[in-house]
From TrEMBL:
The chain crosses the membrane at residues 12-39, 51-69, 90-113, 133-152, 164-181, 193-216, 237-255, 261-276, 297-313, 319-341. Residues 9-336 form the Acyltransferase domain. It comes from the Bacteria. Keywords: Acyltransferase, Membrane, Transferase, Transmembrane, Transmembrane helix. The lineage of its organism: Bacteria, Pseudomonadati, Bacteroidota, Bacteroidia, Bacteroidales. One of its GO terms (molecular function) is acyltransferase activity. This is Acyltransferase.
Amino acid sequence: MDKATTSQLKGIAILSMLWLHLFSSGDLTATLANTVYFYNGAPLATVMKKICSMCVPVYIFLGGYGLAVTHERAVAQGRRMRNWRRVLSLYANLWTVFLFFYPLGLAFNPQLFNTGIYDAALNLTGLKCSMNGAWWFLLPYAILTLLSDRILKLIYSAGVKHEILMLVPVFMLYAGAYVAVDSVNPDHSGTAGLVVINVLRIFMLLFMFMAGVMFARHRLIEKLRSRLTSRYSYGRINVTAACTAAVLLFIKLCIGASSLIHPWFVMILIPLYAVCKRPAWADRMFEYFGRHSTNMWLIHYFFVHYIFGNAIYSLRYPVVIWIVLVAVSLVSSYIVGFVYAPIRRLVRQERPVISR
């Protein structure tokens, strides 16, 4: 899977995340002009959250996939990966966003943002996410990135059977962590409780991260594409993939939004997207949003909950509301990106280290 396809999938994921955070509340969505309903009479805008809630597993899968590709390239070039630079770059991005939006938060939601230094520090590390709920997986993902060297070496040194066996306890950890973290309120937990919650969240992400690494290691998507294109035309591949994806998404709409079922859908839907030949305009559009996905992830929640509040729902039509949020998040991404770009270049500067 090439870099462009990965970026497109990130673009789809961030657009899904914005929809999820706008319409996950049934009470708010019930007040909108819902002109489209699901077969059971529920507003489609709300039901769509069952699909959009797969956005984080998509990100984590792509993160594991991308780090595996980078690892292979680093080994081939005889250099070590500097994952601490990736993490520092991510946090520099977070802190740049915080500098812009903390004053806005004080203006629009002073009760929440007028907090003590210690609480602000917990938010700036990602240990606590009271100022922006969308940051909940930042610290766990950062820790996974720092540990990725060991995870990658473990996976790449194992045989196929051992890899599959390895995934069984990891999935059990994932399921157990999902149940455990769902019963804890992070807003009412002390520092020790926040540490426990973030450890559980690491286990929640680990399964998809390792799945992404394994897909990259064994070139599963590339092999699938090669096998299909050698036997069938792109027209037939596109129709089959589109119909399969439509059936899967309809099933997902019917069975719920539980995180326990996300991985299986993600591991099928991503290859289906990758093997298709899409219109050039669609690739360009999704890739464009993919380039802004990190900033939009870090930014959009401020608008949804702390700046716009319920006022954005006065626009009444879900698609219009979503487009407005996408637009303001995108404009904000350009502003933040202008300030962050030189910082990123400084942080991500890497010199190859030749192994001896």
